[in-house]
Amino acid sequence: MDSSSLLRFAGELADTAARITMQHFRTPLSVENKFADGFDPVTAADREAERALRAKIAARFPGHGIRGEEFPETHGSEPYRWVLDPVDGTRAFICGVPVWTTLIGLEHQGRPVLGVIDQPCLKERWVGYHGKDGETELTVQGFHNGGTSDVERLKEAKMMVTDIRADAYFTEDEAAAVGALARQVRLLRQGLDSYGFGLVAGGQMDLVVEAGLHWHDIAAVIPVIEAAGGVVTDWQGAPVRDNGGGGGTLQVIVAATPALAEAAGEALRT
User: Fold this and answer.
1) Is 69 known to sit in a ligand binding site?
2) Per-residue model confidence as pLDDT tens digits over 3-23
3) 3-state SS of 71-121?
4) What are the tens digits of pLDDT across the range 116-152?
5) Where do the annotations place Mg(2+) binding (predicted)?
6) Are 176 and 164 in contact (CB under 8 A)?
7) pTM for the structure as a whole
8) With contact defined as beta carbons under 8 Å apart, do 76 and 65 qualify?
């Protein structure tokens, strides 16, 4: 499949999501909680945008599968599947904080090959693509270096987590491990949500550590980070894989360099 047409279409999807989400952002919103024993919010913006993206994909690529956060998976007849999260960071969205993003990923035979991280409020967009024979392509829109930093040591790293508290995204044990890691880095920022992934791709942040993620939270991020020169692993240092949409969640390290990812993983496992 032609890479230029895929990249162009992915940009069209991001533009479509932006038009819808920005109509709702910083307006009175009805928020539904999807969890009985916690808080996992969803708004009309999430659902309206995902419906629109699904419709565009089905019209353009009727054989492609589609997996999103809000609706059941559509299985395709071809080895391509789109993975969608139109509002990743709904908590930030409902608070009016512009660190939520639209995540659009495309897999080929189960491997993420294209990813878009889009922040329409700030007009910032990162697009990563894995082509044939291992070549990668990164395009950026906004204020970015266009590649990850060269930081390799924890003591030099700028690190981000969404919320370091236990029971927010981390278990008690995970929160303790992340807290210990945070004491080894130069600087810690919280609350950047999926925007932090883009900042790693742009060279502003060096390290993101998360847990409690689902595949739609990370599939689009992998091609972007790898095209920028960074790495994405789980806490054991292995590639992050789709967990099949089951009840389990993913532990993720996003790092500017392989050495930094390895150092973070060792600290988390100590």
Assistant:
1) yes
2) 889 999 999 999 999 999 999
3) CCCECCCCCEEEEEEEEECHHHHHHCCCCCEEEEEEEECCEEEEEEEEECC
4) 999 999 999 999 998 877 778 888 887 666 799 999 9
5) 69, 85, 88, 217
6) no
7) 0.93
8) yes
Count the neighbouring beta carbons within 10 Å of the beta carbon of residue 169: 18
User: Domains of the chain by range and CATH?
Assistant: 3-141 (3.30.540.10), 154-269 (3.40.190.80)
- Per-residue tokens: 31: 């928020």
Structure tokens at 228: 């920028």
- Helix count (H) and strand count (E) of the chain? 8, 13
Strand-pair partners of 88: 101
Question: Is 15 annotated among the ligand-binding residues?
Answer: no
Distances (CA, A) of 92 to 19, 89, 116, 194, 202: 18, 5, 19, 10, 21
3-state secondary structure of 134: helix
Q: Give the residue carrying structure tokens 């900042």.
A: 199
Q: Given the structure tokens 């709904």, which residue do they identify?
A: 90
Torsion of CA 223, 138, 150, 210, to 10 degrees: -30
